[in-house]
Amino acid sequence: MNYEPFAAIYDRWSEAAPDDIPFFVGLAREADGPVVELAVGMGRVAIPVAKAIGRPVLGIDSSPAMLEEARRAAGDLLELRLGDMRDLELDEPAALIYVPWRSLLHLPTWADRRRLFERVAASLKPGGRFSWAAFAFDHAIAARLDGQQQDEPVPHTLAYSVGDNRVDITLESGDTISLWWATKNEWLGLIDVAGLELEALYGG
């Protein structure tokens, strides 16, 4: 999937993101060891997390354009690495690995997610935490938005393929990225097969 066309408008796109920074800052402050953000993008969350904890955050992303924007914004606050999060491998076990907003939904299949969860489990130190956010699919919202042109935060169109658990986001330029949603029970199953333990589950 090509994320490069979205890098140019991502600062405007991310204005629609939830106010999740305080949550991840709180987790990072409790982390006794390395902190890692997967799908770091342009550093929207990682930069304030690094400022709050007073040490660099390792950010991994598969988009060179996103990482270049993050480097410009972050200076030496972040250690940035190009890579596929499904191939996660760290030099030192992490105390916290997190994925904000809905970035895990860029992984299209159960196998992709299982691979990631197992890599995360192998990359955490004893007592380490893995935290992520994802939206819960809502049929009413999908029916209302499917095929409709949206003007905010940038002009785009959403197209839902419910049978594939997929929503395609298409910009005016014609460039498209997709998200594949999962149910709560699917996430709980991934936790189980990876050998992780559920500490907390939030909704809202």
Compressed to H and E, one letter per element, the order equals: HHHEHEHEEHEHEEEEH
Shape: globular
Q: Could you give the distance between the termini?
A: 29 Å
Unreliable residue stretches: none
Share of β-strand residues: 15-25%
Strand order of the biggest β-sheet: 3-2-1-4-5
Helix % is: 25-40%
Mean pLDDT equals 95
Taking Cα atoms only, what radius of gyration do you get, to the nearest Å?
17 Å
Largest sheet: 5 strands, parallel
The number of helical elements comes to 8
In terms of quaternary structure, the protein is single chain
Counting helices, strands and paired strands, the structural category is alpha/beta
Tally of DSSP β-strands: 9
Describe this structure in words.
The protein starts with a helix and ends in an 11-residue tail after the last helix. It has helices spanning 4-7, 10-13, 21-30, 46-53, 64-74, 110-123, 139-145, 184-193, and strands spanning 35-38, 57-61, 78-82, 94-99, 124-132, 149-150, 156-161, 166-171, 176-180. The longest helix has 14 residues, at 110-123. The protein is of the alpha/beta class and 204 residues long. It is globular, with a radius of gyration of 17 Å. Helix 4 links the parallel strand 1 (35-38) and strand 2. It contains 8 helices and 9 strands.
List the helices and strands and how they pair.
Elements: H1 4-7, H2 10-13, H3 21-30, E1 35-38, H4 46-53, E2 57-61, H5 64-74, E3 78-82, E4 94-99, H6 110-123, E5 124-132, H7 139-145, E6 149-150, E7 156-161, E8 166-171, E9 176-180, H8 184-193
Parallel strand pairs: 1-2, 1-4, 2-3, 4-5
Antiparallel strand pairs: 6-7, 7-8, 8-9
Helix pairs in contact: 3-4, 6-8
